[in-house]
Amino acid sequence: MGILSYSVGSAPALACRKIIVQRKGHSDLNYENITLDRTSKTPLYLQLKKIFLDAIREKELCSGDLLPSESEIAKLFGISKATVRQCMGELSNEGYIEKRRNRGTIILGQKLNIGYSSEIGDFSERIREMGMQPKTELLALKVEECNKQVAQLLNFDEPKKIIHLVRLRYANNFPIVYIDSFLPYETCRPVLSHDLESESLYSILDQEPSPQLHIHHVVRTVYASEALPEIAEKFNVRTGCAMLTVETIAYNKNGFPIEYSVSYSPNARNQYSFTLNR
């Protein structure tokens, strides 16, 4: 359990208050000089919003932290519940917090900027560079007959078997990306003998002796979609929630498709940036 201690002003200063935030594995937090200025032209809900945003950006509030109820915050700051509700509404719409049934309001943290550059990078390395701990959960790994859409994207001239791989990627134990991948079974069979929760798929392929399995370049298409029930459940969001969706086709040096994947992440949690070199 962590303690957030705010010095809050009343006309213009209120007495010091403490906000209790349920946390896991974090030390107590102490805010001693934060005030809500009733004489300011800035509305109180925006002042309160800034307090929480500053704490999130400084990683004093982290993904998974559970905030007090709106009534408790209103009482602690000496402001109306409507003011707190307006603040929380904006933080929710912007993807910084999430209200969960039977649990309360959860901190989601900053939107993760999952950048794409001219180089093919490793997901775990990007997450570590952002100061977070990556984790991969293997949801499915099976060999099956491919459908017509996947066959076309993998450039099959007849129905063939594929490796169907489903993973859920985490940052600091918080789910951020759901990935549905398809690989040609005949050429990518060595993948089945690896630990796909601890090893990078592209690193596995690059370490194979056959250059036909080495990823040379990828083509990505980004668009918005709605969360299907099985995906919404993994992120604990409602079905139909807006998702950032990325389709990827990875090719070897000869231009032959090695992998087709579709990744999904809630729009409120992640953003994508692209680096283009001239």
Characteristic terms for this protein:
278 residues, alpha+beta, Arc Repressor Mutant, subunit A, Chorismate lyase, 2 domains, six-stranded antiparallel beta sheet, three-stranded antiparallel beta sheet, 8 helices, 13 strands, 23% helix, elongated, disordered N terminus
Topology:
Elements: E1 2-6, E2 17-21, H1 44-57, E3 66-67, H2 70-77, H3 81-93, E4 97-100, E5 104-107, E6 112-113, H4 123-129, E7 134-145, H5 148-153, E8 161-171, E9 174-184, H6 185-188, H7 201-206, E10 217-226, H8 229-235, E11 242-251, E12 257-266, E13 270-271
Parallel strand pairs: 6-13
Antiparallel strand pairs: 1-2, 3-5, 4-5, 7-8, 8-9, 9-12, 10-11, 11-12
Helix pairs in contact: 1-3, 2-3
Could you give a short description of this structure?
The protein is α+β, with helices and mostly antiparallel strands and 278 residues long. It has two domains: 2-107, Orthogonal Bundle (Arc Repressor Mutant, subunit A), CATH 1.10.10; 112-271, 3-Layer(aba) Sandwich (Chorismate lyase).
Mean pLDDT: 81
The CATH class of the largest domain, by name, is Alpha Beta
Using the alpha-carbon principal axes, give the shape: elongated
CATH topology of the largest domain: Chorismate lyase
Total number of β-strand segments?
13
Strand adjacency order, main sheet: 7-8-9-12-11-10
Q: What's the order of the H and E elements?
A: EEHEHHEEEHEHEEHHEHEEE
Can you identify the CATH superfamily of the largest domain?
A: Chorismate lyase-like
Write a structural description.
- This protein is α+β, with helices and mostly antiparallel strands and about 280 residues long.
- The protein has two domains: about 1-105, Arc Repressor Mutant, subunit A; about 110-270, Chorismate lyase-like (Chorismate lyase, 3-Layer(aba) Sandwich).
- It is built from eight helices and 13 strands.
- The strands form four sheets. It has a six-stranded antiparallel sheet. A three-stranded antiparallel sheet has the order 3-5-4.
- Strand 8 (about 160-170) and strand 9 (about 175-185) form a beta hairpin.
- Helix 1 crosses helix 3 (about 80-95) and helix 2 packs across helix 3 (about 80-95).
- The longest helix has 14 residues, at about 45-55.
- The termini are far apart.
